[in-house]
Automatic annotation (TrEMBL):
Name listed for the protein in its UniProt record: L-ascorbate oxidase
This protein's record includes keyword Glycoprotein: yes
Assigned protein family: Belongs to the multicopper oxidase family.
Domain Plastocyanin-like, residue spans: 32-146, 158-300, 381-521
Length: 551
C-alpha cells in the first residue's frame, strides 16, 4: 500500500491536470482572462471571460487538494482574483486582494498556489480590481468531501452550481466612472441566473435537468455587486444542508434570501409532475422588484413551465426570522473551527470588542463609504508586502480607527485602515447599520460564529440573546437596515486579512479594512514565507528580499 501511494499519477480532470505523488493531490489550472461580448439581459456588454466562459469555469476540488492556478491577464488593465471563503491558513499571500497582492499587469501572468484543506462546502471566486466583478471573471468553487469522510446526507443524483446576481448594462468602465465622479450606481437593470434569463417563449434551453424521483444538490451563490436576492424553485422545496463551509440543520424552505457574497447548498427532490419548472430569483429590499427565471427540465417531461411564479417574501422582518432558523449541524463530520482548543465558543472570554458603524458621506463633494469615520484609501503598495519588507510605517498606520464609532460619525477622512490584532485573541465584532440600505460583510482568512442579529442599536445587554451553542460558522454576514449583527472568532490565522463590504460600490469607495495578525515568534509554524515569484509593486519593488523565517 505504501509503495502504491508513492506512485505518481498524471491525468486530465475537468480541464485541469491532477498530480498525486505520495501526499495530497495537486490540481493544475490555466486561466486566460479576456474581454468578450456578453448579454445576460439581452443587451450586448463588454464582459470579462475566463477561458472564453461567462460565468467562469467551476473550480472543482476535494479536501486537502493543492490548487495551482496560472492566471494570464489578457486585458488592457490590471486584474486580480480572490478565492472568497478559502481560508488560506498561514498563507494570506494567496488571498488575491489588493492589500496582500499586487494586481497582475496587462499581458502578464501570476500563479496562485494554495491548499483548500478540510473546508467541505460551496464558495466562489471573483475579481477584486476596479468594477470587473460587475461583468464577469467570477465562478463557483467547490470543495468536496473525500470518500472516507461522510457528509450528513445521501449522495445526490447530480451536483449543480447556480450563480445568481444583479446586472448593470452600463458595463464596468462606465460604472467605475460613475463612482469616480462621486455618484451612486442606482438600481440594477436586471438579474441573471448563470449568466442567462429565461424568455418564457417555449424555446429556452434548461439550466438544469432532473429525473423524477431523484434528489439533486444545488450550490447557490450570489455573485452580484449590490443586490440581495431571494431564490425559490417553482413547485419544489429546498432542504438547506450547507452554508459557506458548515453543514447546517436540515430545514426545508420555500425560498431563501441569499445576500451578496453568500453561498448556500440545498437539496431539491424531483417529486412533481414531469415537465418544466422555473427557478426564480427576485431582488430584495429594493423599491422596484426585479425577477428573473431559468428553466429546470424533467427528463422525458412534457409541458411548459407555468407562468404563475411562486411569490417572493415581503419585508426585512421575514429575512431576520429566516436567519434565526439557521443552525449548525453539530453531529456532522466536517471540520469545525476550534477556538482556543474548545468547540464551546460560547464559554470563551472575549478579549476585545470592536464595533463598526458604516456611513455614507461626501468628501470634497464626492461620495465615500466609511467605517467608524474613516474611508479606506488603497495604497500603491500592498499592506502585507509593506509589513513583510519592514516599511509599513511608510505606507500605513495601525489602528487608524477606534474600536467604537466616534460620537460624530458624520466626518470622514481617507486612509488605509489596518487593525493590529493580537494572535489568538478571541474577538467580538459588532456591525451597526444606521442606514436604510442592507449591508453584507466578508472576512477573508477565517470563518466566524454569526451569533446575533436584531433591529436597533447594539448594547452589551444584547449578548443575552446570542446563540452561544450552534451558530453557523461562516465567512459572510448581512446587516439589515437600521440593525446590527454580531460575530465571534479567534484571530489565530497569521497574515493580513480583508474585512470588506461585499456590496461592491461600497467596497470600491472605502467600506473595508484589514486585520493584521503577526506571528509573535516569526515562525513557519504560524505563517509561510513570501512565495517565490510573487509580484512586487509600489515602494518594495526592487528592494532586496527579506530573510525568510527559518523554523
Amino acid at each position: 500500500m505504501a509503495r502504491l501511494m508513492l506512485i505518481s499519477m498524471l491525468f486530465l480532470l475537468a480541464g485541469s491536470m491532477l498530480m498525486v505523488q505520495g501526499g495530497d493531490p495537486t490540481l493544475f489550472f490555466e486561466w486566460n482572462v479576456t474581454y468578450g461580448t456578453i448579454a445576460p439581459l439581452g443587451v450586448p456588454v463588454k464582459g470579462i471571460l475566463i477561458n472564453g466562459q461567462f460565468p467562469g469555469p467551476n473550480l472543482n476540488s476535494t479536501t486537502n487538494n493543492n490548487i495551482v492556478v496560472n492566471v494570464f491577464n489578457n486585458l488592457d488593465e490590471p486584474f486580480l482574483v480572490t478565492w472568497d471563503g478559502v481560508q488560506h491558513r498561514k498563507n494570506s499571500w494567496q488571498d488575491g486582494v489588493l492589500g496582500t497582492n499586487c494586481p497582475i499587469p496587462p499581458g502578464k501572468n501570476y500563479t496562485y498556489k494554495f491548499q483548500v484543506k478540510d473546508q467541505i462546502g460551496s464558495y466562489m471566486y471573483y475579481p477584486v480590481t476596479a468594477m470587473h466583478k460587475a461583468v464577469g471573471g467570477f465562478g463557483g468553487l467547490r470543495v468536496n468531501s473525500r470518500l472516507l469522510i461522510p457528509v450528513p446526507y445521501a449522495d445526490p443524483a447530480d451536483d449543480y452550481t447556480l450563480l445568481v446576481g444583479d446586472f448593470f448594462n452600463k458595463g464596468h468602465t462606465s460604472l467605475k466612472k460613475i463612482l469616480d465622479s462621486g455618484r451612486n450606481l442606482g438600481r440594477c437593470d436586471g438579474v441573471h441566473l448563470n449568466g442567462k434569463v429565461a424568455k418564457g417563449d417555449g424555446k429556452d434551453e434548461p439550466l438544469f435537468t432532473m429525473e423524477a424521483g431523484k434528489t439533486y444538490k444545488y450550490r447557490i451563490c450570489n455573485t452580484g455587486i449590490k443586490t440581495s436576492l431571494n431564490v425559490r424553485f417553482q413547485g419544489h422545496t429546498m432542504k438547506l444542508v450547507e452554508m459557506e463551509g458548515s453543514h447546517t440543520m436540515q430545514n426545508d424552505y420555500d425560498s431563501l434570501d441569499v445576500h451578496v457574497g453568500q453561498c448556500f447548498s440545498v437539496l431539491v427532490t424531483a417529486n412533481q409532475e414531469p415537465r418544466d419548472y422555473y427557478v426564480v430569483a427576485s431582488t430584495r429590499f429594493t423599491r422596484r422588484e426585479v425577477t428573473a427565471t431559468g428553466i429546470i427540465r424533467y427528463k422525458n417531461g412534457k409541458g411548459a413551465a407555468s407562468s404563475e411564479l411562486p411569490p417572493p417574501p415581503v419585508g426585512w422582518a421575514w429575512s431576520l426570522n429566516q436567519f434565526r432558523t439557521f443552525r449548525w449541524n453539530l453531529t456532522s463530520n466536517a471540520a469545525r473551527p476550534n477556538p482556543q482548543g474548545s468547540y464551546k465558543y460560547g464559554s470563551i472570554n472575549i478579549t476585545r470588542t470592536i464595533k463598526l458603524a458604516n456611513t455614507a458621506q461626501r468628501v470634497d463633494g464626492k461620495l465615500r463609504y466609511a467605517l467608524n469615520g474613516v474611508s479606506y484609501d488603497e495604497p500603491t503598495t500592498p499592506l502585507k508586502l509593506a509589513e513583510y519588507y519592514g516599511v509599513a510605517d511608510k505606507v500605513f498606520k495601525y489602528d487608524t480607527i477606534p474600536d467604537e464609532p466616534p460620537s460624530d460619525n458624520t466626518r470622514v477622512t481617507l486612509a488605509p485602515i489596518v487593525l493590529n490584532m493580537t494572535h489568538r485573541n478571541f474577538v467580538e465584532i459588532i456591525f451597526e447599520n444606521h442606514e436604510t440600505a442592507i449591508q453584507s460583510y466578508h472576512l477573508s482568512g477565517y470563518s466566524f460564529f454569526a451569533v446575533g442579529m436584531d433591529i436597533g442599536k447594539w448594547s452589551p445587554e444584547k449578548r443575552m440573546n446570542y446563540n452561544l451553542l450552534d451558530a453557523v460558522s461562516r465567512h459572510t454576514i448581512q446587516v439589515l437596515p437600521n440593525s446590527w449583527s454580531a460575530i465571534l472568532l479567534t484571530f489565530d490565522n497569521c497574515g493580513m486579512w480583508n474585512l470588506r463590504s461585499e456590496i461592491w460600490d461600497r467596497h470600491y469607495l472605502g467600506q473595508q479594512l484589514y486585520a493584521s495578525v503577526i506571528s509573535p515568534n516569526r515562525s513557519l509554524k504560524d505563517e509561510y514565507n513570501l512565495p517565490e515569484g510573487v509580484l512586487t509593486c509600489g515602494i518594495v519593488q526592487g528592494m532586496p528580499r527579506p530573510p525568510p523565517f527559518s523554523s
